[in-house]
Amino acid sequence: MGLGVLALVVQIGIILLVAYNLMTSLWGLINPKGTRPGLRNRRFRVIVPAHNEAAVIGNLLVDLRKQDYPQDLFSVAVLADRCTDETAMVARQWAEVYERREGLDGKGALLAWFMAGYPLDDDECLVILDADNRVPPNLLTRFSDEMDSGHDAVQAYVDTGNPDGGWLATASALSYWASNRMVQLARRNLGWSADLGGTGMAMTPRALAATGGFGYSMTEDVEKSARLAMSGYPVWWIHDTRIFDEKPTALTSAVRQRARWSRGRRGVAREYAWRLVGTALREGSWSYVDLVIRMVQPSRSFLVLVMAVLAVASAVAPHWWLVPWLVWLPVLVVQVVLPMVFLAREGIAAKYIWRYPLLAIWALMWIPVQVLGRFQRGWYHTPHSGSG
User: In angstroms, rounded to a whole number, what is the distance separating the alpha carbons of residues 235 and 226?
Assistant: First the structure.
């Protein structure tokens, strides 16, 4: 009896979660308004963490040389972290290079090391990019304009540079394209904090000062998002400025990357969830609770898999503690079809939308990702080949 009640409660919780995500995602159907040009006189320090990225980092640094922003208002620092290849040598052609020979694993630890030893000037804004990124010429201009309009923490659209690099890269691209509208843009339109993406993000000196340095979480971007929200600096989503990164094409790399993200998000949720809820009660804003929900919920594709199993089970062997399949059916349809609506709204080419079922295959990887995430202790660096 007790287990049956628990099972029923879990199923009702899943339905409520789907309904909540549906309602919030609808705000992502609204295209954002443009931002007026600002003064464009802010100073930026662009930081590029890099571990054995000699194959890709040159492309990013050339892109940064082509910025339409005044060259005397920004500098580029490459953090060569215990590299065993020619990353530092390649990077010195275009940027200042800071080499770390030892220390804790992870981007957060690397950024903390750099910020402690080489602090930014009082008027310098921080920009973080990954070594495999490709960026548009107006990236810093857009960051400056958004900051001049009052946003202290901004996140550019993270796109996929290799959507045709195999089924894994395509599935990842589809997931990013859909969530960029359903989650990130929706939060912007709701006036809530979006998520930092680990790359393509920028912060003003006052936002950095209010949130301290970078922590040692395996997902330093999630931790920083939580700190920014609690400090009154919500992350502002920039939908019209895209950076491109290279998604994994090998199953082992993809699973290990997701396992790190999974473990990191759980750790951040354990540390910050109740503090965010407390902030929500003090401020009277649901946006903090929304951030917690995004931290702890399973992936959309995995929920589809779970609901499909429950629907079949209730049709074949109905029990009082199983939600009827007639209820699961419309919930499943919404969960499956809705992302395709957003992909079409985003203008994604039909050849990719037809590959949408690949996300169902990727959903099967959620369980090994969770299992591996519980045992993965060290930082996993995703290798890049420059195919993006």
Answer: 10
Q: Is the dihedral of CA 362, 365, 367, 369 positive or negative?
A: negative
User: For 301-356, what is each residue's pLDDT tens digit?
Assistant: 788 888 999 999 999 999 999 999 999 999 999 988 999 999 999 999 999 988 88
- Angstrom distance (rounded) from CA 161 to CA 173: 9
Residue 254: inside a domain, yes or no?
yes
Other residues' Cβ atoms within 10 Å of the Cβ of residue 3:
8
| Percent of the chain's residues with pLDDT above 90 | 74
Residue 109: give its domain's CATH number.
3.90.550.10
Number of compact structural domains in the chain: 1
Using DSSP's 3-state secondary structure scheme, residue 76 falls into strand
Is 124 contained in some domain? Answer: yes
H helices of the chain, in order, are: 2-25, 57-65, 87-91, 107-117, 139-148, 167-179, 186-190, 205-211, 220-230, 251-283, 287-296, 300-316, 325-345, 350-353, 358-363, 366-375
Tell me whether residue 252 is in a domain.
yes
Quick check: is 346 in a domain?
A: no
